[in-house]
Every structure is written in C-alpha cells, then in structure tokens.
Amino acid sequence: MYFSRSDINSITRIRRLNLINSVTGIKPANLIGTISNSSSTNLAIISSVVHLSSNPPLLGFMLRPDNNVPRHTFENIKETGYFTINNITNAFVENGHYTSAKFAKEISEFDSCSLTEEYLFSMKYLENIEIKSSNTIMIVGEIEHIEIDEIALSDNGYIDLEKLDAVGISGLSSYYNLSKIIDLPYARVEDIPLFSNNESIDITE
Ligand SMILES: Cc1cc2nc3c(=O)[nH]c(=O)nc-3n(C[C@H](O)[C@H](O)[C@H](O)COP(=O)(O)O)c2cc1C
To answer: Does residue 138 line the site of ligand 1, with CB under 6 A?
Structure first.
C-alpha cells in the first residue's frame, strides 16, 4: 500500500494520527514521574525517550505543550528541576497506559492507576529545546541515578530488556513483548560476513 503526501492529508485525523505514530516502529515504554512544589505527584506514559549522549549521560523526550490542556509533567519539571523515568514492564502495561488520561492536577496518576511512588530523583532537568516545525519541545535531562535488576545486566554493561520483561510501544495504544534475536559484534568493514547466496534482500518487502 502506498500513501502519497496528499493521501496522508486526506485520511481522517485519527487514522493519520495512528499511521504516523506507528510508522517509526517500536518505541520505548516509559513513565515520567514528577512532583510539584506543593507535593502533588504526577505520572505520564511517554514513548519518545531517546538517548542523547553517554558522557555526559543525557536523555531526552518530546512533549507537546498545549495551551488548552495543561502539561503537569512540564510544570512540575520546571518547578523542581527533577524527574524520574521508569521502564514499563509486562506486569503493569495497563496501569501505565491509563496514566495518559487527562487527570486534574491534584489527582495523582499513581493513586488512580495503582502504582506506588518511590522518591528517587534520577533525572536532573537541563534544558528544553523548541522544535518549531512540530510545535513541540524536547526536554533534556542528565542521569543522576540508575536502578536496575541485576539479572538483566550483562558483564559488558548492556541491559537485557527481555529478561526485564520490558515492553515496546507502537503508535499510541499497542504494546509488544520484546524478544532478543541476537547479539552482534561492533561492525567493522573487514569483518562483514558472507551473506547467504550473496543475494540482495529487498528491504521494501
Ligand atoms: C502510548 C503513549 C505514548 C505517549 N507518548 C507521549 C510522548 O512521547 N510525549 C507526550 O507529550 N505525550 C505522550 N503521550 C501522552 C501523555 O501520556 C498524556 O498527554 C499525559 O496526560 C501527559 O501527562 P501530564 O498532562 O500529566 O503531563 C503518550 C500517550 C500514550 C498512550
């Protein structure tokens, strides 16, 4: 199936939202936790967390500030300068999903979605970068603490997401289990394997 730009423009808003939100493939499933100066906690599912650099250890995520709908996550981050990021596992996919509902500021998603707060300030807010073309901002934060189940940590430092039962997100409503296919070495030109039959694979199929 082929979609031209004018096809994309003419499909219904919800279909376009679903198509464009799932076109990139699997996104990470995380909950951003924040607290206001008046001690109201807030939790929001966010699928746009990205690695920015390892040294310094920086992560970013996208937020769409909306003049009509207040973004409690952003308000709290600006107030306190801190936020947490928690990876969603299979055990609490549904609880995590429903944190996206538009709760009033004084209602904590932790209570409403049966999740328990742990007060660990793991990300320090550094800056927000405006992306004018999409009217969104990227929040940039520095990792201060990482807590991880040891069974998932390999000797070389990689995290095995399958062992953690971590999940992936497609679009805004589909959740996937993750299963590791293979670990491959750092790709050096002199080590390229001989692919079977030397037949080129059509990646468009
Ligand atoms: C699967 C999924 C992924 C989402 N990812 C993002 C995201 O990356 N950025 C964003 O701004 N909102 C995202 N949302 C929407 C927020 O979770 C939702 O707007 C939430 O109410 C924001 O919380 P707040 O108003 O308390 O800050 C996502 C929602 C779902 C269901």
So the answer is: no
- Asked whether the beta carbons of 59 and 141 are under 8 A apart, the reply is yes
User: Cα separation of 24 and 163, whole Å?
Assistant: 24
Confidence label for 117 from pLDDT (cuts 50, 70 and 90):
confident
- Over residues 54-97, the pLDDT tens digits come to 999 999 999 987 776 678 999 999 999 999 999 999 999 999 99
Which residue's CA is the nearest one to ligand 1's atom 28? 46
Mean pLDDT for all residues in the chain: 93
The answer to whether the CB of 44 is under 6 A from ligand 1 is yes
DSSP summary character for residue 97: H
Residue nearest to atom 22 of ligand 1 (CA): 44
Nearest-angstrom CA–CA distance, 200 and 188: 20
Residue 197 has pLDDT above 70, yes or no: no
Which tokens in the block code for residue 131? 């992306």
Closest atom, ligand 1, to C-alpha of 74: 27
Nearest to 105 by CA among 45, 163, 41, 151: 41
Q: Is 107 in the pocket of ligand 1 (CB under 6 A)?
A: no
Asked if residue 16 has its Cβ within 6 Å of ligand 1, the reply is no
Closest CA to 50 of 121, 180, 139, 173: 139
